[in-house]
Write a sequence for this structure.
């Protein structure tokens, strides 16, 4: 299949969303069927263009003349919506091509999602599209909605047309689309474009993200994905969108389970369910990952409705003490600050509010507060230069005028370029007030916790400057050829696992810090090597058949004399013979004993979506128990490497917690960057573990204590 | 049975099931794309052919048959 012609693609996608004329190919008059509902949706939405039903048997559909074939239509057709059964979609698309139609939406199911037969059908569609320079969305999708009143196109079989808005929504799942539309309708959440892309045989999420990037009606992008077409392209596209337009991208990615990971041989492999890498990669690209629809919309409406916060200093206005405290707790735990009001604000609040009110932040306008009191407190708070956002909390007490307060909040919001979010706590009594807030684009949250989280997300987004990978931070003193030679040697011998000695040699080519060491083939050789290195030393079994040397008692540490070297040699050999009798032994590695330090793990993993990825985490024998790890896609720059370290819970240990001296984080960052270069340069490495890497005190460096590489 | 006779009876069944004029059915017509059969009618067509020719066809294969000529050839396997 030829590469996509971007110019054609852009023109063809524009015709999907802004067609002058639409043909529904395979239309019928049977209520309750997809063809019937699509044509009625288009008409009901008051589509600004011409509609042509194409039906083999009907003469008229919904009052419009029906054509037997699309080629029978005399005038040009911009968009074909194909709703025939999958077995004849190719015939329909072929006719569209002959007619000169360049854009199509193929709604029909029965393609690659059903297996080989369907895959063949899908391939045929691609060949036809290629032949006629066409592009299509689908198959197996719900369709497309454009709420722009200039076009007002509901080319879907959704139950309703959503309200107009500035959120662009992309979904691989059609069924999820219908649930999202229903959810959004109840909360008056509007959309600019609503796109179900199904099997994404031709137009995929990257193409659609690029379309939404340039769509002036879209200010926030949401995407639901089940599988990623091209992880690296997704990251690059997202980075471009964020850098060039500032449009936030929020993603809901299904598949958080890690099936298959347990079969992996290395620690990195077992910790890297593709989802962990996906999370790291999305973060790296600046995409905000959400766990569920509610969280996604909680965050999306914050960014779509209100100005972005200029700082994390917020004011809380509440009519009840308890909820005020809850909101304060939530705000602090999300990294927000309660603004210190200026003297002027305090003075005005003191004058305007009852004596019993709390005029400090959080401001308690107390239980009998009417709308006017909320208005005064909120306006004064927003006027204050120390405040960059406000939370309005309301509990439905007998004196509370809920709807008037909601109206007042909306009016105040119009006067200030600062974000206002609200939480009218409860359900039944506050529902009309909530409705007013939602219609007026004041983000509303049932729980103050969700509200604070949404604010923190918006704030973090504004402070996060998306940037390209800083290639100047990559090292030039690495020896790719030498590393590849060692890997090639193992491959030529049909080996999937390198010995530790070989693994060390590979790491050496990328100048990862290794202790002095040499391979001994006998106890006498071991003594010679130990004397040359100097005591204390460590000794480790070397065999491609043994990945976890500690498990079979193949390691002895802290050896201080030649006698101990001899004893250790014999002991290790005995242990291996009894615990792993079939293992082919290459010798015993005698190694400089690394001083005590913090144990961390570094790893390489080949991810199915994103390719070479890097893991960092708390190391040692508990790595899989605590799973305190982070992932990013290789290569890394300093900032990314630092973020990886800092997002683990064990990061404070490196900074010197509880009397432990500060560790050499700079050396660790360097090691992560070097390792990421190795992962990028040598994709033959399927999995690599450095476990542990010992991080010494600041200025003392870090050392690879043990490493394994699988091909 | 003579192929012409077989084709004539196949077209009669198609016209009856799809409620169209027999003269509107040509040899290359696709049941769905050209004649507008829906999924229920596709199953009815298979049942109609079985009844007309007193045969029992492999249903999966029968449903794969998409046009008049192919239907004639397929049914001929059972009738002869």
């Amino acid at each position: 299949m030829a590469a996509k012609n971007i110019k054609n693609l852009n023109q063809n996608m524009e015709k999907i969303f802004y067609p002058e004329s639409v043909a529904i190919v395979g239309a019928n008059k049977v209520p309750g069927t997809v063809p019937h509902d699509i044509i009625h949706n288009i008409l009901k939405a008051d589509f600004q263009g011409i509609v042509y039903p194409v039906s083999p048997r009907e003469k008229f559909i919904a009052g419009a003349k029906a054509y037997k074939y699309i080629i029978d239509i005399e005038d040009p057709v911009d968009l074909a919506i194909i709703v025939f059964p999958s077995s004849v979609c190719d015939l329909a698309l072929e006719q569209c091509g002959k007619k000169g139609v360049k854009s199509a939406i193929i709604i029909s199911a029965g393609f690659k999602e059903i297996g080989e037969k369907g895959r063949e059908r899908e391939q045929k569609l691609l060949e036809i599209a290629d032949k006629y320079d066409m592009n299509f969305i689908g198959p197996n999708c719900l369709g497309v909605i454009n709420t722009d009143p200039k076009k007002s196109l509901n080319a879907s079989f959704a139950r309703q047309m959503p309200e107009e808005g500035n959120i662009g929504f992309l979904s691989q799942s059609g069924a999820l689309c219908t649930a999202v539309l229903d959810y959004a309708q109840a909360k008056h959440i509007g959309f600019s474009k609503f796109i179900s892309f199904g099997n994404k045989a031709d137009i995929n999420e990257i193409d659609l993200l690029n379309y939404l990037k340039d769509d002036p009606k879209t200010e926030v992008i949401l995407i639901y994905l089940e599988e990623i077409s091209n992880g690296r392209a997704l990251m690059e596209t997202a980075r471009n969108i964020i850098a060039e337009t500032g449009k936030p991208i929020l993603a809901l990615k299904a598949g958080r389970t890690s099936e298959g990971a347990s079969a992996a041989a290395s620690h990195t492999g077992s910790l890297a369910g593709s989802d962990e890498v996906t999370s790291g990669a999305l973060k790296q690209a600046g995409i905000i990952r959400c766990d569920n629809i509610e969280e996604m919309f909680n965050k999306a409406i914050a960014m779509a409705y209100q100005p972005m916060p200029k700082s994390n200093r917020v004011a809380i206005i509440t009519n009840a003490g308890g909820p005020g405290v809850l909101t304060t707790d939530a705000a602090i735990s999300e990294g927000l600050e309660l603004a210190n009001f200026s003297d002027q604000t305090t003075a005005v609040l003191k004058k305007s509010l009852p004596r019993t009110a709390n005029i400090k932040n959080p401001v308690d306008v107390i239980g009998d507060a009417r709308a006017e009191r909320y208005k005064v407190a909120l306006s004064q708070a927003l006027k204050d230069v120390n405040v960059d956002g406000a939370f309005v909390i309301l509990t439905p007490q007998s004196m509370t005028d809920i709807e008037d307060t909601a109206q007042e909040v909306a009016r105040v919001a119009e006067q200030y370029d600062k974000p206002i979010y609200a939480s009218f706590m409860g359900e039944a009594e506050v529902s009309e007030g909530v409705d007013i807030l939602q219609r007026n684009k004041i983000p509303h949250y049932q729980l103050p916790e969700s509200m604070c989280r949404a604010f923190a997300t918006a704030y973090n987004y504004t402070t996060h400057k998306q940037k390209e990978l800083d290639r100047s931070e990559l090292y030039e003193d690495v020896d790719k050829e030498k590393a590849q030679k060692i890997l090639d040697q193992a491959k030529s011998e049909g080996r999937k696992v390198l010995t530790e000695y070989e693994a060390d040699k590979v790491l050496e080519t990328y100048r990862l810090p290794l202790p002095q060491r040499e391979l001994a083939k006998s106890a006498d050789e071991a003594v010679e090597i130990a004397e040359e290195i100097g005591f204390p030393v460590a000794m480790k079994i070397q065999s491609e058949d043994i990945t976890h040397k500690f498990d079979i008692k193949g390691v002895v540490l802290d050896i201080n004399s030649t006698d101990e070297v001899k004893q250790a040699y014999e002991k290790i050999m005995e242990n291996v013979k009894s615990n792993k009798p079939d293992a082919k032994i290459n010798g015993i590695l005698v190694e400089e004993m690394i001083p005590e330090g913090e144990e961390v793990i570094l790893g390489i993993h080949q991810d199915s979506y994103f390719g070479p990825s890097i893991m960092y985490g708390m190391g040692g024998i508990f790595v899989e128990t605590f799973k305190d790890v982070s992932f990013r896609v290789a290569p890394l720059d300093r900032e990314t490497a630092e973020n990886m370290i800092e997002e683990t819970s064990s990061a404070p240990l490196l900074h010197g917690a509880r009397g432990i001296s500060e560790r050499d984080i700079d050396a660790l960052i360097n090691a992560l960057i070097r390792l990421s270069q190795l992962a990028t340069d040598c994709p033959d490495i399927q999995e690599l573990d450095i476990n542990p890497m010992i991080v010494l005190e600041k200025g003392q460096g870090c050392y690879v204590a043990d490493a394994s590489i699988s091909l | 049975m003579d192929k012409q006779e077989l084709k004539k009876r196949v077209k009669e069944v198609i016209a009856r099931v799809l409620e169209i004029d027999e003269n509107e059915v040509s040899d290359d017509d696709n049941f769905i794309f050209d004649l507008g059969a829906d999924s229920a009618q596709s199953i009815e067509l298979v049942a109609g052919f079985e009844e007309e020719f007193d045969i029992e066809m492999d249903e999966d294969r029968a449903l794969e048959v998409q046009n008049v000529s192919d239907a004639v050839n397929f049914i001929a396997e059972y009738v002869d």
About this structure: The first helix of chain A runs from residue 6 to 17. The CA atoms of residues 558 and 572 of chain A lie 14 Å apart. Residues 260-265 of chain A have pLDDT under 50 and may be disordered. The two ends of chain A are 31 Å apart (CA to CA).
